[in-house]
Amino acid sequence: MAELLILSKKDLENLLSMKEVIDAVEAGFKGLALGEAVMPMPYIIEVPKHNGVWGVKSALLNSQDVVGVKLSSGYFENPVKYNLPSITGVVILADSKLGVPLAVMDASVITAYRTGAVAGVAARFLARRDSRTAAIFGAGVQGRTQLMALAEVLDLEEARVYDIVTTAAENYAKEMSAKLELDVRTCKSVEEALRGADVVSTATPSKKPYIRLEWIEKGTHITTVGSDHKGKQELETRVYEVAKVVVDKREVALEKEYLKPEQIHAELGEVVAGLKPGRSDSEELTVMDSSGLGIQDVAAGLAAYQLAKKKNIGTWVELF
What we know:
The chain is an alpha/beta fold. The protein is built from eleven helices and 16 strands. The longest helix has 20 residues, at 107-126.
């Protein structure tokens, strides 16, 4: 008999911690760099009939004998027309030794945590150890997990948030101040948020760069997660010309118009595995340009699956 574990959004919210996801994602990137993991290129299925799109990301973790796939959708008319979320999906895990499915879980929480975790992993290797002030751009779900991850790996004393929707930034500051017991304040402009910041995370859907080089302090580390595919850009091109740029996967990153092969110092996994150096001095400007990979989804999903079994959370279904 084989049983399948079902993990709902509520299950995952009660289960996951940022520390565990950061550690899992770091191990996933290291395995990718060392050849212990296999990851096909992500691909998109357009559904023009219904103004929708599906994204498929996957990975094989040979060291864990686990294969996983994230199937996520973007139907942006849903909230208005059908009172449904614009983005939904599932992460599916399976035993790669026996070929048996193990779990199906909500993708929204996994995506939020694994995307935040990238900022945490990158900060461990690229940010200055004495970083105390964070600037977050975008007061949504991703902006929240970005700050959660930075606060997990750095001894932060202050955080700033900027969002074009003032009320969103104000709500973010109140919520995250209480959640993290950290001084989080709103800023009226991009420049105000950047001046004096040690670490920066951008989590906006902007198609026009708004982070200008002259506003960035020496020694700053920046993680971009909003510029996750072609057509989006948050940092002006000049930043990439002078920064030490790390990406999650070269082939995926180079689909973006603003990046050139010679600008990429390393993949994150190479830095984690010690194959390429991270930060080299206190004044260096470093950028982690993230696209979001299947290795993150599978690593985070596996962590959730293991925790759920340990804590007896979720619903088991007899599969066959």
